[in-house]
Amino acid sequence: MKHMNSEVKEERTSNKKRIDLFLVPIVLIAAFLNLFKIWTDEYANAYYTAAVKSMLQSLHNFFYASFDPGGYVTIDKPPVVFWIQTISAKIFGFHGWSVILPQALAGIGSVLLLYVLVKRTFGVWAGRFAALAMALTPIVPAVSRTNNIDSMLVFTLLVATWMLFRAVRTAKFGWVLAAFAMIGVAFNMKMLQAYMVLPAFYVFYVVATKITWKKKISFLTTATVLMLAVSVSWAVVVDSTSADKRPYMGSSQTNSVLELAFGYNGINRLTGNTSVTGSSHKQPAQTQQQTASSETKQNSNSSADSSQSSNQRKSSSSQKMQAPGGGNQNGMFNTGNPGPFRLFQKGLSDQISWLLPFVIFSIVGLFAGVKFKGPYTTKQKESLFWLAWLLPVAIFFSIAGFFHQYYLIMLAPPMAAFAGAGAVALWSMYKQHNGWKSWLLPGGILTTAALQVYIMSPYVSSIGVAPIAGVGALGVILALVLAVRKQRKNSLTNYLGAVAMVVLLAMPAYWAMTPIIYGGNSMLPSAGPDSSSGMGGPPSTATNSKQSGFNGMQPPGSSSGNSSSNNQMQPPSGSSNSGEMQMPGGSSNNSQMPNSSSSKSSSSKRKSGGMNAEVNKKLLNYLTKNNTGEKYLFATTDSTSAAPYIIKTGEPVMAMGGFSGSDPILTVSKLKAMIKKGEVKYFYLSGMGKGGQSDVITWIKENSKEIPSSKWQSTSSSVQQGPSGNGALYEITLK
Question: Each residue of 234-259: pLDDT tens digit?
């Protein structure tokens, strides 16, 4: 106890010391990468931004995280992060940047927390390098510059880590409870993803605390019960509330938060469930309907139509054949194919794996000579914590059937911690000529440089040959020189080691800046020269972003005047499945490739949040003028058509099938009752989102009058044609 008390006093003394001047530029770098030009993102992720707009209007919407102001359906995530975003919007006003700001600050906070966590045990230089590695991990600022949840989630888990480390140092049970309760809070941010760190928490507490096994089991059991109670607290309240007194739980199939947590946001991520009834984003049936709809609208005079139709049929066939995780070379949403080397594949490696070989060499060095039965040093115990965080998460991403590139931010803290701690440890082993361990430093430098060359090689057309050749050549030269000079001790060797670290961080730093240089995508954030496309892969996966994936969508009722061949959703070149599903908020409207001049022009506002992140003013004027007191401005199939109108007007717009259009929320009888009550009379229907509501849509078409397009359809040619651009507006009035 005396030793532990002395550690606490030592910590308080160190906190009173002056600010680490080396940390200041690292924090400034993180602030620049996370904050610069976030004010140019007008809508952010429109799906979530619309929810914030709705939550600002009432405590009812705020508590349930309602997607629409009418309280019809919630978003597909729990509310804590959106509570924070709503508070930010309340303080600073409702803007794209005000809903992004909390995540940007969380990204900076994670850099500072990692510095504090690593510095205490591994030394100040280890803390500095870990913080810098965290700041420059490309996916970290890419996610933090959006209103997606993951940056805040990682920050919360690092706060929980700080509490756990303090619990071990002070031997105070209260800190253990606080640490696990914080994981419960994180669960209410992104559900089961928060639990990915639990192996690290359990292993570390068991190994690091010097108390009896009886107390360990008792303390961990109590802390786990508290964590579970905090985790399900909101879910229990919501699921216990009568369904007619709250919004439908979006993206669930049974109107249940717990089903959402363990199904759609849980097991389905691992299995890659593609069925509509499986509550997945992936909607093959919906896609086939879109394809069929598009094919019926072909212009027989257009020579491009037959080719386009053929491409669609090939895409549908490819979708049927693909395995979980994607059937082409880049996988679903460019996340590669499941396997032990998935993190080295294109699409993932350039987001997170730049320092992965160095991390592996660091792990070898840090655990060299460790005996299974102990005793363990503090460094070894904390190294075990970071390893128990890293391995399960890495395994998940290696085998998971469905996730997005930005989820990889979960790997950033342990990898950055090992990069910082390993840099100091390997350098010490190298300087001390510690047998085979002294070769780990040059080996780590050489293999890491080789991987970075591999990562950059598909981007030759975007970044040129020079940086690729430079990193490769310098990596080989520095590794060889360090190997040759292994027996010499002088200042030149020290400089060589520092230069090697700079070389290994140079390209990750450039990649981390790409969302600023080329523009980001708030719906599917990723880093790289094509960061604005939202598909985060080499140029070969999207040779023409104007026709790829979900890019270039138009608002409901806009007519581009393009040939009908543009009316179909086309997958990226070389990717047969990228067009098969829609994601929260849709995709970017400015998603050009890096060589496009418009992609580099970020001085104007970017409406990068939704497939239809534009408002058709003629449609809006018509609906507003002809509203006779209805609760909903109009109803539509899914959230992508509704979100921009909610953001623009703050008026209730009903997404009948929730986010993707597949939620079984509405029945014909319920809709009849709503119409008779005068709650809704206008319906905008397109080829999107029929999923589980085909009966409702059929009834609407059979019992309504179609409004002539001349009264509401825009004739603007400034926006590209998309799958929801050829919809129709219907009016129903029942007595």
Answer: 999 999 999 999 999 999 999 999 99
